[in-house]
Protein backbone atom coordinates (compact mmCIF):
# COMPACT_ATOMS: atom_id res chain seq x y z
CA UNK A 1 0.00 0.00 0.00
CA UNK A 2 1.19 3.50 -0.80
CA UNK A 3 1.62 6.23 1.79
CA UNK A 4 -0.45 8.57 -0.38
CA UNK A 5 -2.55 7.91 -3.45
CA UNK A 6 -3.49 10.91 -5.59
CA UNK A 7 -6.47 9.67 -7.56
CA UNK A 8 -8.00 10.68 -10.90
CA UNK A 9 -6.04 13.90 -11.32
CA UNK A 10 -4.99 15.51 -14.59
CA UNK A 11 -1.23 15.02 -14.42
CA UNK A 12 1.00 17.53 -16.21
CA UNK A 13 4.69 16.62 -16.29
CA UNK A 14 6.33 18.42 -19.23
CA UNK A 15 9.73 16.80 -18.69
CA UNK A 16 8.20 13.39 -19.35
CA UNK A 17 5.63 14.66 -21.87
CA UNK A 18 2.72 13.58 -19.68
CA UNK A 19 -0.63 15.36 -19.81
CA UNK A 20 -3.42 12.93 -18.94
CA UNK A 21 -5.67 11.54 -16.21
CA UNK A 22 -3.60 9.28 -13.96
CA UNK A 23 -3.23 7.98 -10.42
CA UNK A 24 -0.02 8.67 -8.51
CA UNK A 25 1.27 6.45 -5.73
CA UNK A 26 3.76 7.83 -3.21
CA UNK A 27 5.93 5.67 -0.98
CA UNK A 28 8.85 6.61 1.31
CA UNK A 29 9.03 10.13 -0.06
CA UNK A 30 9.25 9.10 -3.71
CA UNK A 31 6.97 8.76 -6.72
CA UNK A 32 6.31 5.01 -6.75
CA UNK A 33 3.51 4.66 -9.29
CA UNK A 34 2.07 6.65 -12.18
CA UNK A 35 -0.74 4.63 -13.68
CA UNK A 36 -4.26 4.41 -15.07
CA UNK A 37 -4.80 1.36 -12.85
CA UNK A 38 -6.63 1.60 -9.54
CA UNK A 39 -4.33 2.08 -6.55
CA UNK A 40 -4.82 2.52 -2.82
CA UNK A 41 -2.94 4.43 -0.16
CA UNK A 42 -3.08 4.92 3.57
CA UNK A 43 -4.18 8.40 2.58
CA UNK A 44 -6.35 8.60 -0.54
CA UNK A 45 -6.87 12.04 -2.07
CA UNK A 46 -9.52 12.52 -4.71
CA UNK A 47 -7.98 14.78 -7.34
CA UNK A 48 -10.89 14.65 -9.78
CA UNK A 49 -11.14 18.01 -11.58
CA UNK A 50 -7.71 18.98 -10.20
CA UNK A 51 -4.35 19.36 -11.92
CA UNK A 52 -1.31 17.57 -10.51
CA UNK A 53 2.06 19.13 -11.27
CA UNK A 54 5.62 18.77 -10.07
CA UNK A 55 6.12 21.23 -7.23
CA UNK A 56 6.98 24.69 -8.53
CA UNK A 57 10.65 25.70 -8.46
CA UNK A 58 11.51 29.36 -7.81
CA UNK A 59 15.14 30.05 -8.76
CA UNK A 60 15.06 33.74 -7.81
CA UNK A 61 13.76 34.76 -4.40
CA UNK A 62 15.21 36.44 -1.34
CA UNK A 63 15.36 34.04 1.56
CA UNK A 64 14.09 34.60 5.10
CA UNK A 65 16.45 35.86 7.75
CA UNK A 66 17.93 33.59 10.40
CA UNK A 67 18.03 34.84 13.99
CA UNK A 68 21.33 33.71 15.53
CA UNK A 69 20.10 34.40 19.07
CA UNK A 70 16.73 32.66 18.78
CA UNK A 71 18.17 29.95 16.52
CA UNK A 72 15.22 30.14 14.16
CA UNK A 73 14.06 31.47 10.80
CA UNK A 74 11.37 34.09 10.21
CA UNK A 75 9.64 32.13 7.37
CA UNK A 76 7.78 35.18 6.02
CA UNK A 77 8.84 34.45 2.44
CA UNK A 78 8.94 30.66 2.73
CA UNK A 79 5.36 30.46 3.99
CA UNK A 80 4.22 32.56 1.02
CA UNK A 81 6.19 30.27 -1.30
CA UNK A 82 4.55 27.14 0.09
CA UNK A 83 1.06 28.62 -0.15
CA UNK A 84 1.52 29.35 -3.86
CA UNK A 85 2.75 25.86 -4.66
CA UNK A 86 6.52 26.33 -4.55
CA UNK A 87 8.34 23.31 -3.15
CA UNK A 88 11.95 24.32 -3.92
CA UNK A 89 13.56 27.75 -4.15
CA UNK A 90 16.92 29.45 -4.52
CA UNK A 91 17.95 32.43 -2.39
CA UNK A 92 21.14 34.44 -2.19
CA UNK A 93 20.23 36.42 -5.30
CA UNK A 94 21.25 39.89 -6.48
CA UNK A 95 24.56 39.67 -4.63
CA UNK A 96 22.86 39.55 -1.23
CA UNK A 97 22.20 36.60 1.05
CA UNK A 98 23.15 34.91 4.31
CA UNK A 99 26.62 35.88 5.50
CA UNK A 100 27.43 32.22 6.09
CA UNK A 101 25.39 30.20 3.59
CA UNK A 102 26.82 26.91 4.81
CA UNK A 103 25.45 27.60 8.32
CA UNK A 104 22.09 28.66 6.92
CA UNK A 105 21.77 25.42 4.96
CA UNK A 106 22.83 23.36 7.97
CA UNK A 107 20.17 25.04 10.10
CA UNK A 108 17.55 24.42 7.41
CA UNK A 109 18.38 20.73 7.68
CA UNK A 110 18.44 20.77 11.47
CA UNK A 111 15.21 22.69 12.02
CA UNK A 112 13.27 21.89 8.88
CA UNK A 113 12.02 24.53 6.45
CA UNK A 114 8.65 25.18 4.78
CA UNK A 115 10.17 24.36 1.36
CA UNK A 116 13.43 22.98 0.04
CA UNK A 117 15.95 25.83 0.01
CA UNK A 118 19.18 26.31 -1.91
CA UNK A 119 21.48 29.31 -1.99
CA UNK A 120 23.80 31.10 -4.32
CA UNK A 121 26.97 32.60 -2.89
CA UNK A 122 26.43 36.36 -2.73
CA UNK A 123 29.09 38.65 -4.17
CA UNK A 124 28.10 41.53 -1.89
CA UNK A 125 28.82 39.39 1.15
CA UNK A 126 32.16 38.26 -0.23
CA UNK A 127 33.16 41.90 -0.62
CA UNK A 128 32.02 42.95 2.84
CA UNK A 129 33.80 39.97 4.41
CA UNK A 130 37.06 41.72 3.55
CA UNK A 131 36.06 45.23 4.54
CA UNK A 132 35.06 46.56 1.14
CA UNK A 133 31.94 48.49 1.99
CA UNK A 134 32.26 51.25 -0.64
CA UNK A 135 29.94 50.07 -3.37
CA UNK A 136 31.19 52.69 -5.79
CA UNK A 137 34.84 51.59 -5.71
CA UNK A 138 36.74 48.65 -7.15
CA UNK A 139 38.99 46.28 -5.22
CA UNK A 140 42.57 45.14 -5.65
CA UNK A 141 43.90 41.78 -6.77
CA UNK A 142 44.69 40.78 -3.19
CA UNK A 143 41.04 41.20 -2.18
CA UNK A 144 39.82 39.35 -5.28
CA UNK A 145 42.10 36.46 -4.33
CA UNK A 146 40.66 36.35 -0.79
CA UNK A 147 37.13 36.55 -2.17
CA UNK A 148 37.86 33.66 -4.52
CA UNK A 149 39.13 31.55 -1.62
CA UNK A 150 36.00 32.26 0.41
CA UNK A 151 33.82 31.56 -2.64
CA UNK A 152 35.54 28.23 -3.16
CA UNK A 153 34.77 27.28 0.44
CA UNK A 154 31.09 28.14 -0.05
CA UNK A 155 30.89 26.20 -3.31
CA UNK A 156 32.49 23.23 -1.58
CA UNK A 157 29.78 23.59 1.07
CA UNK A 158 27.06 23.26 -1.56
CA UNK A 159 26.06 26.68 -2.87
CA UNK A 160 24.57 26.42 -6.35
CA UNK A 161 26.68 29.17 -7.89
CA UNK A 162 27.32 32.89 -7.49
CA UNK A 163 25.09 35.95 -7.70
CA UNK A 164 26.09 39.49 -8.53
CA UNK A 165 24.08 42.61 -7.77
CA UNK A 166 26.03 44.76 -10.20
CA UNK A 167 23.40 47.49 -10.05
CA UNK A 168 23.83 47.64 -6.27
CA UNK A 169 27.65 47.58 -6.33
CA UNK A 170 28.48 49.67 -9.40
CA UNK A 171 32.14 49.78 -8.42
CA UNK A 172 32.59 46.13 -9.37
CA UNK A 173 34.73 45.73 -12.47
CA UNK A 174 34.42 43.16 -15.22
CA UNK A 175 37.83 41.84 -14.13
CA UNK A 176 36.54 41.24 -10.59
CA UNK A 177 33.49 39.43 -11.92
CA UNK A 178 35.52 37.36 -14.38
CA UNK A 179 37.97 36.24 -11.70
CA UNK A 180 35.19 35.06 -9.40
CA UNK A 181 33.37 33.47 -12.33
CA UNK A 182 36.47 31.41 -13.07
CA UNK A 183 36.13 29.92 -9.60
CA UNK A 184 32.49 29.09 -10.28
CA UNK A 185 33.48 27.48 -13.58
CA UNK A 186 35.71 25.00 -11.72
CA UNK A 187 32.54 23.61 -10.13
CA UNK A 188 30.41 23.83 -13.29
CA UNK A 189 27.79 26.00 -11.60
CA UNK A 190 25.90 29.14 -12.56
CA UNK A 191 26.40 32.90 -12.25
CA UNK A 192 23.19 34.94 -11.90
CA UNK A 193 23.24 38.71 -12.07
CA UNK A 194 21.13 41.75 -11.45
CA UNK A 195 22.91 43.46 -14.32
CA UNK A 196 24.57 46.86 -14.17
CA UNK A 197 21.85 49.02 -15.64
CA UNK A 198 18.36 48.99 -17.08
CA UNK A 199 16.13 50.88 -19.52
CA UNK A 200 18.18 52.63 -22.22
CA UNK A 201 21.41 51.07 -20.88
CA UNK A 202 20.18 47.48 -20.71
CA UNK A 203 21.89 46.34 -23.93
CA UNK A 204 25.49 47.05 -22.83
CA UNK A 205 24.64 45.66 -19.40
CA UNK A 206 23.53 42.34 -20.89
CA UNK A 207 26.62 42.34 -23.10
CA UNK A 208 28.85 42.77 -20.04
CA UNK A 209 27.49 39.51 -18.64
CA UNK A 210 27.69 37.78 -22.02
CA UNK A 211 31.33 38.79 -22.40
CA UNK A 212 32.13 37.27 -19.00
CA UNK A 213 30.45 34.07 -20.18
CA UNK A 214 32.53 34.16 -23.36
CA UNK A 215 35.76 34.68 -21.44
CA UNK A 216 35.14 32.07 -18.74
CA UNK A 217 32.81 29.52 -20.31
CA UNK A 218 30.31 29.71 -17.46
CA UNK A 219 26.54 29.63 -17.80
CA UNK A 220 24.91 32.92 -16.83
CA UNK A 221 21.44 34.07 -15.86
CA UNK A 222 20.02 37.57 -16.38
CA UNK A 223 17.82 38.06 -13.34
CA UNK A 224 14.31 39.55 -13.60
CA UNK A 225 14.59 40.68 -17.22
CA UNK A 226 11.25 42.46 -16.86
CA UNK A 227 12.51 45.02 -14.38
CA UNK A 228 15.59 45.58 -16.53
CA UNK A 229 14.07 46.00 -20.00
CA UNK A 230 10.28 46.46 -19.82
CA UNK A 231 10.51 50.15 -20.69
CA UNK A 232 10.62 49.80 -24.46
CA UNK A 233 13.84 47.76 -24.74
CA UNK A 234 12.51 44.21 -24.30
CA UNK A 235 12.62 43.25 -27.97
CA UNK A 236 16.22 44.44 -28.26
CA UNK A 237 17.20 42.62 -25.06
CA UNK A 238 15.65 39.35 -26.21
CA UNK A 239 17.27 39.65 -29.63
CA UNK A 240 20.69 40.02 -28.00
CA UNK A 241 20.08 36.98 -25.82
CA UNK A 242 18.77 34.88 -28.72
CA UNK A 243 21.67 35.81 -30.97
CA UNK A 244 24.37 34.97 -28.45
CA UNK A 245 22.57 31.79 -27.38
CA UNK A 246 22.82 30.79 -31.01
CA UNK A 247 26.59 31.23 -30.90
CA UNK A 248 26.95 28.84 -27.96
CA UNK A 249 26.73 31.20 -24.99
CA UNK A 250 24.80 29.52 -22.18
CA UNK A 251 22.54 32.36 -21.08
CA UNK A 252 19.14 32.25 -19.41
CA UNK A 253 16.56 34.76 -18.23
CA UNK A 254 13.77 34.92 -15.68
CA UNK A 255 10.83 37.22 -15.04
CA UNK A 256 7.83 37.77 -12.77
CA UNK A 257 4.30 38.65 -14.03
CA UNK A 258 3.97 42.18 -12.66
CA UNK A 259 4.50 45.66 -14.10
CA UNK A 260 6.20 47.06 -11.00
CA UNK A 261 9.51 46.28 -9.31
CA UNK A 262 10.50 46.52 -5.66
CA UNK A 263 13.76 47.34 -3.93
CA UNK A 264 15.06 49.34 -0.98
CA UNK A 265 14.64 53.08 -1.25
CA UNK A 266 18.28 53.63 -0.31
CA UNK A 267 19.64 51.48 -3.13
CA UNK A 268 21.65 52.73 -6.08
CA UNK A 269 18.57 52.17 -8.27
CA UNK A 270 17.39 55.54 -7.01
CA UNK A 271 20.63 57.45 -7.43
CA UNK A 272 20.47 60.74 -9.32
CA UNK A 273 18.93 60.42 -12.77
CA UNK A 274 16.41 57.66 -12.08
CA UNK A 275 13.37 59.85 -12.80
CA UNK A 276 14.70 60.68 -16.25
CA UNK A 277 15.75 57.08 -16.90
CA UNK A 278 12.25 55.74 -16.30
CA UNK A 279 10.43 58.83 -17.58
CA UNK A 280 8.46 59.23 -14.34
CA UNK A 281 7.92 61.52 -11.39
CA UNK A 282 8.05 60.60 -7.71
CA UNK A 283 4.37 59.59 -7.67
CA UNK A 284 5.30 56.35 -9.47
CA UNK A 285 6.95 55.22 -6.23
CA UNK A 286 4.91 53.60 -3.46
CA UNK A 287 6.51 53.13 -0.05
CA UNK A 288 5.56 49.84 1.66
CA UNK A 289 6.31 50.65 5.29
CA UNK A 290 6.76 53.42 7.82
CA UNK A 291 5.09 56.81 8.11
CA UNK A 292 3.98 56.92 4.48
CA UNK A 293 3.09 53.24 4.10
CA UNK A 294 0.86 52.62 1.09
CA UNK A 295 1.26 56.17 -0.19
CA UNK A 296 2.73 57.46 -3.42
CA UNK A 297 5.76 59.63 -2.76
CA UNK A 298 6.64 63.19 -3.64
CA UNK A 299 10.09 64.74 -3.71
CA UNK A 300 10.05 65.68 -0.02
CA UNK A 301 8.84 62.30 1.29
CA UNK A 302 11.18 60.41 -1.05
CA UNK A 303 14.24 62.30 0.18
CA UNK A 304 13.15 61.99 3.81
CA UNK A 305 12.67 58.22 3.67
CA UNK A 306 15.77 57.63 1.55
CA UNK A 307 17.87 59.42 4.14
CA UNK A 308 16.21 58.14 7.31
CA UNK A 309 15.06 54.65 6.33
CA UNK A 310 17.21 53.41 3.43
CA UNK A 311 16.17 49.78 4.04
CA UNK A 312 12.47 50.43 3.53
CA UNK A 313 11.09 48.72 0.46
CA UNK A 314 9.57 50.84 -2.27
CA UNK A 315 7.49 49.66 -5.23
CA UNK A 316 8.17 51.38 -8.55
CA UNK A 317 5.14 51.29 -10.85
CA UNK A 318 7.12 51.87 -14.01
CA UNK A 319 7.11 48.80 -16.30
CA UNK A 320 5.01 48.23 -19.43
CA UNK A 321 2.57 45.31 -19.43
CA UNK A 322 3.19 44.52 -23.09
CA UNK A 323 6.93 44.29 -22.46
CA UNK A 324 6.46 41.95 -19.51
CA UNK A 325 4.16 39.83 -21.68
CA UNK A 326 6.84 39.66 -24.35
CA UNK A 327 9.40 38.47 -21.81
CA UNK A 328 7.23 35.83 -20.15
CA UNK A 329 6.06 34.33 -23.44
CA UNK A 330 9.64 33.96 -24.70
CA UNK A 331 10.68 30.28 -24.75
CA UNK A 332 13.86 30.88 -22.72
CA UNK A 333 12.15 32.70 -19.87
CA UNK A 334 11.83 31.01 -16.49
CA UNK A 335 9.10 32.19 -14.12
CA UNK A 336 10.69 33.43 -10.87
CA UNK A 337 9.21 35.63 -8.17
CA UNK A 338 12.07 37.84 -6.96
CA UNK A 339 10.03 37.66 -3.77
CA UNK A 340 11.26 39.92 -1.00
CA UNK A 341 9.55 41.09 2.19
CA UNK A 342 10.59 43.34 5.06
CA UNK A 343 8.56 42.45 8.16
CA UNK A 344 5.71 41.31 5.93
CA UNK A 345 5.84 44.41 3.76
CA UNK A 346 6.79 44.46 0.10
CA UNK A 347 5.56 43.36 -3.32
CA UNK A 348 2.73 40.86 -3.99
CA UNK A 349 5.02 38.85 -6.28
CA UNK A 350 6.24 37.12 -3.10
CA UNK A 351 2.82 35.50 -2.64
CA UNK A 352 1.25 35.56 -6.09
CA UNK A 353 3.74 34.95 -8.90
CA UNK A 354 3.03 31.34 -9.86
CA UNK A 355 -0.79 31.31 -9.59
CA UNK A 356 -0.87 34.69 -11.33
CA UNK A 357 1.21 33.36 -14.22
CA UNK A 358 -1.20 30.47 -14.77
CA UNK A 359 -4.29 32.66 -14.45
CA UNK A 360 -3.08 35.55 -16.60
CA UNK A 361 -0.82 33.93 -19.18
CA UNK A 362 -2.47 30.54 -19.66
CA UNK A 363 -6.15 31.25 -19.04
CA UNK A 364 -6.79 34.95 -19.63
CA UNK A 365 -4.21 36.09 -22.18
CA UNK A 366 -3.55 32.65 -23.67
CA UNK A 367 0.08 33.55 -24.37
CA UNK A 368 1.43 30.15 -23.26
CA UNK A 369 -0.08 26.69 -22.95
CA UNK A 370 -0.52 25.00 -19.59
CA UNK A 371 2.24 22.57 -20.52
CA UNK A 372 4.61 25.44 -21.39
CA UNK A 373 3.72 27.25 -18.17
CA UNK A 374 4.37 24.23 -15.97
CA UNK A 375 7.69 23.64 -17.77
CA UNK A 376 8.76 27.24 -17.04
CA UNK A 377 7.93 26.70 -13.36
CA UNK A 378 9.33 23.20 -12.77
CA UNK A 379 11.93 21.18 -14.63
CA UNK A 380 13.42 24.01 -16.72
CA UNK A 381 14.45 26.13 -13.69
CA UNK A 382 15.49 23.00 -11.78
CA UNK A 383 17.78 21.80 -14.56
CA UNK A 384 19.21 25.27 -15.14
CA UNK A 385 20.35 25.54 -11.51
CA UNK A 386 21.43 21.91 -11.14
CA UNK A 387 18.58 20.91 -8.84
CA UNK A 388 17.24 17.35 -9.00
CA UNK A 389 13.58 18.39 -8.89
CA UNK A 390 10.76 19.32 -11.23
CA UNK A 391 9.47 15.98 -12.53
CA UNK A 392 7.04 13.24 -11.57
CA UNK A 393 9.27 10.40 -12.78
CA UNK A 394 9.16 7.09 -10.95
CA UNK A 395 11.75 7.35 -8.18
CA UNK A 396 11.73 11.16 -8.14
CA UNK A 397 11.21 13.09 -4.91
CA UNK A 398 7.49 13.40 -4.29
CA UNK A 399 7.39 17.21 -4.36
CA UNK A 400 3.95 17.83 -5.82
CA UNK A 401 1.52 20.71 -6.27
CA UNK A 402 -2.18 20.03 -6.82
CA UNK A 403 -4.32 22.93 -8.02
CA UNK A 404 -7.74 23.75 -9.40
CA UNK A 405 -7.30 25.23 -12.86
CA UNK A 406 -10.74 26.88 -12.61
CA UNK A 407 -10.01 28.60 -9.32
CA UNK A 408 -6.29 29.31 -9.35
CA UNK A 409 -5.51 33.01 -9.08
CA UNK A 410 -3.40 35.39 -7.03
CA UNK A 411 -5.10 37.51 -4.38
CA UNK A 412 -2.07 39.38 -3.00
CA UNK A 413 -2.14 43.12 -3.65
CA UNK A 414 0.24 46.00 -3.14
CA UNK A 415 -1.82 46.89 -0.06
CA UNK A 416 -1.81 43.30 1.25
CA UNK A 417 1.20 41.63 -0.37
CA UNK A 418 1.13 38.34 1.57
CA UNK A 419 -2.44 37.23 0.89
CA UNK A 420 -2.42 33.58 -0.23
CA UNK A 421 -3.71 32.58 -3.66
CA UNK A 422 -6.89 30.73 -4.44
CA UNK A 423 -6.87 27.31 -6.03
CA UNK A 424 -3.77 25.67 -4.51
CA UNK A 425 -5.37 22.60 -2.92
CA UNK A 426 -2.46 20.39 -1.84
CA UNK A 427 1.31 20.60 -1.67
CA UNK A 428 3.46 17.60 -0.81
CA UNK A 429 7.15 17.86 0.01
CA UNK A 430 9.21 14.70 0.21
CA UNK A 431 6.05 12.63 0.03
CA UNK A 432 4.42 14.25 3.06
CA UNK A 433 1.56 16.72 3.19
CA UNK A 434 2.75 20.28 3.75
CA UNK A 435 -0.41 22.12 2.71
CA UNK A 436 -4.01 20.93 2.43
CA UNK A 437 -7.02 22.94 1.25
CA UNK A 438 -4.81 26.01 1.10
CA UNK A 439 -3.70 25.75 4.75
CA UNK A 440 -0.16 24.95 5.92
CA UNK A 441 -0.26 21.83 8.07
CA UNK A 442 3.48 21.15 8.33
CA UNK A 443 6.06 23.88 7.75
CA UNK A 444 9.14 21.79 8.56
CA UNK A 445 9.23 19.28 5.71
CA UNK A 446 11.72 21.11 3.50
CA UNK A 447 15.48 20.76 3.69
CA UNK A 448 18.64 22.24 2.23
CA UNK A 449 19.42 21.86 -1.46
CA UNK A 450 23.14 21.51 -2.07
CA UNK A 451 25.07 21.16 -5.30
TrEMBL record:
It comes from the Bacteria. GO terms for biological process: N-acetylglucosamine catabolic process. Pfam families: Amidohydro_1 (PF01979), Amidohydro_3 (PF07969). Keywords: Hydrolase. One of its GO terms (molecular function) is N-acetylglucosamine-6-phosphate deacetylase activity. InterPro entries: Amidohydro-rel, Amidohydro_3, D-aminoacylase_insert_dom_sf, Metal-dep_hydrolase_composite, Metal_Hydrolase. Residues 324-432 form the Amidohydrolase domain. Residues 51-197 form the Amidohydrolase-related domain. PANTHER family: N-ACETYLGLUCOSAMINE-6-PHOSPHATE DEACETYLASE. Belongs to the metallo-dependent hydrolases superfamily. NagA family. This is N-acyl-D-amino-acid deacylase.
Amino acid sequence: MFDYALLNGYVVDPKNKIASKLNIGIKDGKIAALTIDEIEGENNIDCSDLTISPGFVDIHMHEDSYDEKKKNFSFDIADCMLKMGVTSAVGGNCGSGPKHPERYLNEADRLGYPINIGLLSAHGNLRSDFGNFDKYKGVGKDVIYKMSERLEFELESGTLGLSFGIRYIPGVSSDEMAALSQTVKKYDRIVAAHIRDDADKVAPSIMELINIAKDTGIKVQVSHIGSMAAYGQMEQALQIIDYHSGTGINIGIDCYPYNAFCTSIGSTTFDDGFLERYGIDYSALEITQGEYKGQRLNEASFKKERENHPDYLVVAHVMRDSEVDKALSHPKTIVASDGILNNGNGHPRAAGTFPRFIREYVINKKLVSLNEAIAKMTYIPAERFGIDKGTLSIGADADITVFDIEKIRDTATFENPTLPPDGIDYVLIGGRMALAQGKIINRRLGCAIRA
